[in-house]
Design brief:
With 242 residues, the chain is α+β, with helices and mostly antiparallel strands. It has two domains: 2-75, Orthogonal Bundle (Helix Hairpins); 83-239, Heat Shock Protein 90 (2-Layer Sandwich), CATH 3.30.565.10. The protein contains eight helices and seven strands; from the N terminus they run ααβααββαββααββα. It has helices spanning 2-36, 43-75, 87-96, 99-105, 125-141, 173-176, 203-213, 236-239; strands at 83-85, 108-112, 121-123, 148-156, 159-165, 217-223, 227-235. A five-stranded mixed sheet has the order 2-4-5-7-6. α3 crosses α5 (125-141). The longest helix has 35 residues, at 2-36.
């Protein structure tokens, strides 16, 4: 039944989150201890360990943010602070947070901007940034060795769109209707064959809630074995400010 499946997904969620919390905490503790005890003398190693700590701290922060947001959404206490901002600046600032991770994980994020500057929009910049981070994190996790990710900003038919494209495993059609459900993780239905990929199962459901709150929608285009493209559509007519 649906209740049994949901209960099992909640159990898996607790197990996955426990693992996801322990892993970065262990890395931060170990590398921090090495540096505190003075066991690392080489300056390049100090820099490398510092970058690992920064990366794992970012990963931990993102996970905690998702858990807290999920709690607020579930209780109906999630609030959005709309501001008149440049969507281009929000995206560019968000992508800068991946610079260290790109060097460590050997992947590339390219940004494609429209030829003309877009008008400022009434959005919650932190929420839109979180949605973009969640989509990019997913692209990294499911892209295997070929981690080439493209973020594309455009204006199409009265919507400002933010697309995140990867060349990863793709998502089968039978799962595409479920991936925005809370706790759901790609591969849970057995339609998409993947190796064990950790995650909380909250990222995409939070993306959908954020986009819905902006009166927009999020769509997916995907072909198994060739990759996926997630697109956030924000209505320009409702939110543009002249």
């Amino acid at each position: 039944t649906h209740e049994i499946k949901l209960s099992q997904m909640k159990t898996d969620f607790v197990s996955n989150v426990s693992h996801e919390l322990r892993t970065p905490l262990s890395s931060i503790r170990v590398f921090g201890e090495f540096m505190r005890l003075g066991w690392v003398k080489d300056s390049s190693k100090v820099r490398e360990y510092g970058e690992y700590i920064e990366t794992e701290s970012r990963r931990l922060t993102q996970l905690i943010d998702n858990i807290l947001d999920f709690s607020r959404i579930s209780s109906g206490h999630k609030l959005y602070q709309m501001e008149c901002v440049s969507i281009e600046n929000v995206i560019q600032t968000t992508l800068k947070t991946f610079e260290v991770l790109q060097k460590q994980k050997n992947f590339n994020i390219s940004l494609e901007l429209p030829a003309k500057n877009l008008p400022s929009m009434q959005i919650d910049p932190n929420a839109i940034a979180q949605a973009l981070v969640n989509l990019i994190d997913n692209a990294i996790k499911y892209s295997g060795e070929n981690k080439t990710i493209t973020v594309q900003l455009a204006m199409i038919y009265g919507y400002v769109t933010i697309g995140v494209t990867d060349s990863g495993i793709g998502i089968s059609r039978c799962e595409q209707a479920k991936i925005f459900d809370k706790f759901y993780r790609v591969g849970a239905s057995g339609c998409t064959h993947i190796h064990d990929v950790k995650g909380s199962g909250l990222g995409l459901s939070i993306v959908k809630h954020i986009v819905d709150a902006h009166q927009g929608r999020v769509t997916i285009e995907s072909t198994p074995g060739k990759g996926s493209k997630f697109i956030i559509h924000l209505p320009l007519t409702n939110w543009a400010v002249s």
